[in-house]
Fold this sequence. Notes:
Blueprint: H1 6-25
Amino acid sequence: xxxxxxxxxxxxxxxxxxxxxxxxxxxxxxxxxxxxxx
Length: 38
């Protein structure tokens, strides 16, 4: 995973944290694919 932007990296980090929160909140049967890093 090449780093494009330091700012982008921070945003990705925040988004991943949010995604983790969402996954923890969601029922175990429903899981979003972790393909947000494009």
